[in-house]
Amino acid sequence: MSATPSSDTALPAVASHYPARPQFSGFMKPTGMEGDIGTLEVYGTIPVDIDGTFYRVMPDPQFPPFIDNDPWFNGDGSISAFTLKDGRASFKQRYVRTEKFTRERAAKRALLGKYRNKYTDAVEFKVRTTANTNVVHFNGTLLALKEDAPPYALDPDTLETIGLQTFDGQLPSLTFTAHPKFDPATGEMVCFGYEAKGDGTPDICYYRIGADGKFLETVWLVSPVVAMIHDFAVTDNWVVFPLIPQVCDLDRLKQGGEHWQWSPETPFVVGVLPRVGATPADVKWFRYPNCFPSHSCNAFEDAAGNIVFDLGLCDKNLFFWWPDAAGNAPAPETLHTKLTRFTIDPRATDLELTAAANVQVLQHGNTEFYRLDDRFATQRYRHAFFDLMDPALGTDFRAIGPQLGGGYPLYNSLGHLDIATGETEVYFPGKTHMVQEPVFIPRRGSTVEGDGYLLALVNNYASMSSELHLVDTKDFTKAVAVIMLPLRLRHGLHGNWVDAADVAK
Ligand SMILES: C=Cc1ccc(O)c(OC)c1
Ligand SMILES: [Fe+2]
After folding, report:
1. Residues 6+ away with beta carbon under 8 Å from 52
2. Site residues for ligand 1, CB cut-off 6 Å
3. Closest Cα to residue 257, out of 194, 309, 327, 190?
4. Which end of the chain is more exposed for a tag (fewer CB within 10 A), N or C?
5. Which ligand gives the minimal distance to the CA of 132?
6. Whose CA is nearest to atom 10 of ligand 1?
7. Is the predicted pLDDT of residue 7 greater than 90, yes or no?
8. Domain contains 236
9. 9 band by pLDDT with thresholds 50, 70 and 90
């Protein structure tokens, strides 16, 4: 079928259907769905000590793009909420009413152009974010986050959009990370924005927000390279910024090019800053040979005062859809990210990090989306949970291949690494399934690290619908409950568990 010409000739033509591209096909076909289900079907038993809501976000483009080969990362943020209470589960899903979403809905067509390139838009936006990367609970509201803009605030009960969150005008940065960190002792939210003065600017704005929403401090830094800083890490005394060697160039943007280009000659730069009371001069930029830092797991300080920073590390460009200047990118099936520990002396004067002195691989499998018992965030910890891809587990790739769609990474199981013993346990959800990011739910009344449940949304390519799998960390071999959705939710990014006990104040 051919593209339908736009009725307004001033706007770029859009099709009335999604493109025949992997990121818009099979399980990744956009759904546009909002709605509520009062009680979901459950196989097994949801333990009655579980009382709370799992919020997560996925990109789900409301309209076919007018951009060719628009990446998965550019879809509209759609928030799913699964409330687990009294052994039952309910479901709610709403789009974030961003300026982009609202104006496109009114125009009944796509108006936004390329991922993070305003020069390709059909209209001028004040804020062009899709709010599609993470959803966190803070000071009574949900924050829907994408790293290119301030958060959108949402009502945790209705998922209605309240509006752009600038913290009563306190937010000094144009951008806000999708991966803020929470101090489990104080509830402080530690944040930053990069390209914080606009597209292509090297400015990083570091800020801490008290649990009551009051800004505690702001520090402006200048980055040695305008690179993506997707995640970061926090300890009691330090913050760590891993710079991904995906770089931005304003002239390329103005020419209608991509926001990001892989830079093989750029090292993996690690910024280290005192968490409290820093001045811009206090930042140190450590360097390590070119590689791709993916998500952080956790960080803490050892007895000698070193920063111990655990994150996923890939030796190739994990964001293969943004190739290097010559157009080169690795084949997706050759990517392998390992949970890796960097030990960094923040007082060092030699800023070159080396594999021999600073790096230890904690888990050799192909893993991503690391989670922990959040009560141990920023502190010494023992238990890491993650998505794992191990083809030997028995996934029927031949059967599900046609339904997978593409543009997103595939993980067929959940892993639990006991860092003290080095042992990994694996939960395999089934031969026709892939897993999304898990969340950890503490067992009520237990303060033991990692004692509780792991909950993850799972894509079932045989039924072409989504399932929630709930695993008790005391027995990782099977799910205690599989919660069925009569729907297909696209592959998403991040989410969090919000315990009812932490909301009822
Ligand atoms: C997973 C990383 C990531 C990084 C940047 C993004 O804009 C994003 O959008 C969904 C996701
Ligand atoms: Fe992320």
Report:
1. 83, 84, 85, 441, 497, 498, 499, 500, 501, 502, 503
2. 59, 73, 132-133, 146-147, 230, 493
3. 327
4. C
5. 1
6. 73
7. no
8. yes
9. low
Whole-number pLDDT of residue 10: 85
The answer to whether residue 210 is domain-embedded is yes
Q: Is residue 293 part of a domain?
A: yes
Give CA–CA dist 407/318, Å, rounded. 11
- The ligand placed nearest to the CA atom of residue 371 is 2
**Residue 430, token pair as written in the block:** 């089934």
- Which ligand 1 atom is at minimum distance from the Cα of 75? 10
Instruction: Quote the ipTM score.
Output: 0.99
- The CATH number that applies at residue 160 is 2.130.10.10
Which ligand sits nearest to residue 295's alpha carbon?
A: 2
- Which ligand 1 atom lies nearest to the CA of residue 146? 7
* Residue 494 in marked binding region: yes
17 is in an annotated binding site: no
CA distances 51 to 471, 481, 504, Å, are 15, 15, 12
> What type of residue is 323?
P
Cα distances (angstroms) measured from residue 89 to each of 158, 421, 467: 16, 35, 12
Q: How far is the CA of 179 from the centre of ligand 2 (A)?
A: 7
Among candidate residues 232, 270, 267, 231, the one with its CA nearest the CA of residue 247: 267
Q: Which domain holds residue 248?
A: 25-503
pTM of the model: 0.97
The tokens 């800083």 sit on which residue? Answer: 229
> Is position 14 within any domain?
no
DSSP assignment letter at 324: B
| Mean pLDDT, residues 182-199 taken together | 98
Q: Please work out, in degrees rounded to the nearest 5, the angle formed at the alpha carbon of residue 365 by the alpha carbons of 457 and 262.
A: 85
pLDDT confidence band for 25 (50 / 70 / 90) = very high
Cα 294 to ligand 2 centroid, rounded to whole Å: 8
**Separation between Cα atoms, residue 362 and residue 340, nearest integer Å:** 5
3-state helix, strand, coil in the chain (%, to 5): 10, 40, 50
Known binding residue 364? Answer is no
Distance CA 339, CA 312 (A): 4
Q: Which of 434, 436, 493, 437 is nearest to 464 (CA)?
A: 434
**DSSP state string for 420-486:** TTTEEEEE---TTEEEEEEEEEEPTT--STT-EEEEEEEEETTTTEEEEEEEETT-TTS-SEEEE-S
How many whole angstroms separate alpha carbon 261 and alpha carbon 274? 30
Are 154 and 80 spatial neighbours (Cβ–Cβ below 8 Å)?
no
295 is in an annotated binding site: yes
Count CB atoms within 10 A of the CB of residue 163. 10
Can you give the pLDDT at residue 279? 98
295 C-alpha vs ligand 2 centroid, how far in Å? 6
